[in-house]
Specification:
With 88 residues, the protein is an all-alpha fold. It is built from 5 helices and no strands. This is Lipoprotein.
Length: 88
């Protein structure tokens, strides 16, 4: 858990575009379910910032049944928010 927190802090400091972050997380060894969730969460935050509705991309079954996907989605949603605060 501590490793994940440290990596997330480092990741936040690195910045960059969504695909670069996805690649960085993959290189750090995050699993496919986490990466899928991260990508969906990041997309959801970006679309919400632009349209204010209908931007969510989320797999409800995976959110309930796959903790790694759910954690990745939440992390992606929170991280992409820090890069798009001027929309709010």
């Amino acid at each position: 858990m501590l490793k994940r927190g440290v990596l997330l802090v480092l990741f936040i400091l690195m910045g960059g575009c969504e695909s670069a972050r996805h690649d960085q997380l993959a290189d750090l060894g995050f699993t496919r379910p986490y990466l899928d969730g991260y990508q969906d969460g990041c997309h959801s935050r970006k679309e919400q910032a632009v349209t204010y509705h209908d931007g969510f991309r989320q797999d409800p079954e995976r959110m309930l049944g796959d903790r790694k996907y759910a954690n990745g989605w939440q992390d992606g949603y929170e991280q992409c928010y820090t890069n798009h605060r001027d929309y709010h």
